[in-house]
Design brief:
The protein has 420 residues and is of the alpha/beta class. It folds into two domains: 8-100, Enolase-like, domain 1 (2-Layer Sandwich), CATH 3.30.390.10; 112-409, TIM Barrel. The chain contains 14 helices and 17 strands. The protein has helices spanning 46-53, 61-71, 78-98, 102-105, 172-184, 203-206, 213-230, 246-256, 278-284, 299-304, 318-321, 323-336, 349-360, 408-414, and strands spanning 8-15, 19-27, 30-36, 112-120, 127-128, 134-135, 189-193, 235-239, 263-265, 291-293, 313-314, 340-341, 368-370, 382-383, 389-390, 393-395, 405-406. The strands form four sheets. Strands 4, 7, 8, 9, 10, 11, 12, 13, 15 and 16 form a ten-stranded mixed sheet that branches. A three-stranded antiparallel sheet has the order 1-2-3. The longest helix has 21 residues, at 78-98.
Length: 420
Amino acid sequence: MRELRITDLKVATVQANFEWTFVRVYAGDLYGTGEAGPAPGLRGMSQHFRRLLLGEDALKIRRIEQKIRWATLYAGTSTYHLASAINIALYDLVGKYLNVPVWGILGGYRDEVRVYVDAHGGKGLEAMNSLLLPEKLPWLTGTEVESGRLVTENNPIHGRLSIEKWNSDYSPESYADRARRMVAEGYTAIKFDLDVPTPYTDPRLIMSGELSLKDIDYLASIVRAVREAVGDGVDIMFDLHWRYSVNTAVRICKAIEQYRPRWIEDPTPAQITISNLDELRLITQNCTIPIETGENLYTVYQFKDLLNTGVRVWAPDIVKAGGVSEGIRIAELASMYDIEYSPHNISSPIGTMAHAHVASAANTFGVLEFHGHDVPFWGDVIKPKRRVIEKGYIKLTDEPGLGVDLDMDVVRRYWPDVEL
């Protein structure tokens, strides 16, 4: 039986709109590339994971999965980020070795993957590090990203401790204008942030996850403006970033349901790394709009626990939830209950393509997130040179593995010290 022995593992982290951690698994001169979701300290784990991998047969992906899972028994969830990247890299490596695309290995059948653009608000999202603190970077100058919202910069961008002030980027007119521009680019699905300051924002209420009726009416006016701007032929979704109380989340839902959003995302802190999934049932029982969640869950086991909550859209992020293998398992479980599988994705083109290959085989796939619209170099860091997303779709090809690789000349132009 043929073997493909692993000879090295390399890890590099760079700061883009989020932290991108790239992983390469080598078998002699051949290698596969993967990506890990943001978490502190991933590069520092590389020497320990290298020891686990050296000499293993890359073709035995499930054995390697199990080895890593048992080895990280005490290590916490951030190890799953690196394990996910290794799993993706293994599929890329095996695909190259067999001269088969990953979606072919998986038995995928969908060769065009629908994408929704995360438009954020009236402008794009600022950059943040793995602790969700804002980062000031040279490439942000001249790009259409927000500024001036955060009053303090030593609090996480998301959550109830962020003190914010309203500006015109968060007006209904700005949202509507950005929505029209996204549609003009070919997107048929758009997501916006709705946990944004209003002219009536009271930080004392936000600390408890509450909003005034004036706040809620204002947020509803944003949703109305977006719907009127794009019409009924475009899906619109709204992210609440875990911010609100159950009562406030239900009030928001009631205020915007007439505009028929595809989903409301993460309305309460029910689903952060330490989860309280019962809280979601209180919302789904009182909200007709589908609730979407899952970006902070790990493995199919945690998604299994969503089954009794009434959540109708699952959004795993495979660069942290367990890689290609776990993405397929989650998609299969969603398919058993006819639950929509619409992955969260804040990755570079590497992680994005990994998601697209899994989506090809997901029976209840809905739409894949794209969070890099306002990153000027997002599509430049790969080879062969092509537009990954064209008119709101990713076209899967017969290129082996993931079908794209990092262009190290371009990568080092932005991050000179990267070694992979």
